Input
Amino acid sequence: MPMTSDRTPHAPPWPGPVPFAVATPETAAGATAPLPVPWASLRAPSRRRLLLAAASAAWGLPRPLRAAAPAALHKPIPASGERLPAIGLGSWITFNVGDDPQGRAGVTAVLRAFVEAGGGMLDSSPMYGSSQAVIGDALTRLGRPPGVFAADKVWTSSAARGSGQAEASRRLWGVPHFDLLQVHNLLAWEAQLPMLREMQAAGRVRYVGITTSEGRRHDTFEQIMRRERLDFVQLTYNPADRVAERRLLPLATERGLAVIANRPFRQGALLHALAPHPLPGFAGELGCDGWAQLVLKFIVSHPAVTCAIPATSRVDHLRQNMRAALGPMPDAALRERIAAQVRSLVG
Output
């Protein structure tokens, strides 16, 4: 039976529990010594940007990407100027394959294609069942390829367990440090965000941020964006979900925050609804051969968006997604035409 993907809204067919059955917000373990490249995250944006850039250089950045297409869209992280590929990869549901050999082989194939296409950001969470361990296994099988931007989250209501959970996640990935750690869905953010900043100051993580999804808690999210020192925010954004354009995306630009767009395909439901309809004629002007590419081009062409993180368990879909970063991008007028076309078809 084929594995599920971002283009189908169904649960994965492999054996084992779904993420909510295997994950709780209370996983925790151990601690780790600081990396030998510490830096402080200071309040002054200009000084902070210089320090982040220095740390990136000390860690050997920019790191090489295998077979990266020269024309692929990269966008800067405002805090440092480091450039990220505009199309990343999520792991919610699609990588939760447990110990199933076929499932793990499929994830490894997807990650191999991701790296070969010049992919950067790979995003996961303790909430995503076995995804972190599966990622770690796949990266080992691939020989720990360079260029992966390791992004994960803290997801625990316990103030005391956040650091231990982050260390447990790092060990599952098998990475020396995370590039980005985020407070997942604002859970206990008052305790976890200061902890992440302490890790950042000690050189144990490069960037910190917060996440939300499906339009939840935008008022609180906005308040945190205005008050706290952040490098990244992650939120839902696509042609059918544009509420973030009202306040959050303009505020991210104002505050110099990188933006990760999650649920670009509404966990496959958006593409499922669009699939029966032919692409509009203007899609050819952008080099799109499918709805997935048109949706992704709409997302990453927004000036405030740094990258999108579609999830998939299929190599062919992964390659289609990555090609969205190639060729022309829609301007503001064409973006409105894309959104209007999507609204007319899916409501």
Residues 1-6, 8-45, 60-70 have pLDDT under 50 and may be disordered. The first helix runs from residue 19 to 22. The chain is about 35% helix and 10% strand. The first strand starts at residue 74 and ends at 76.
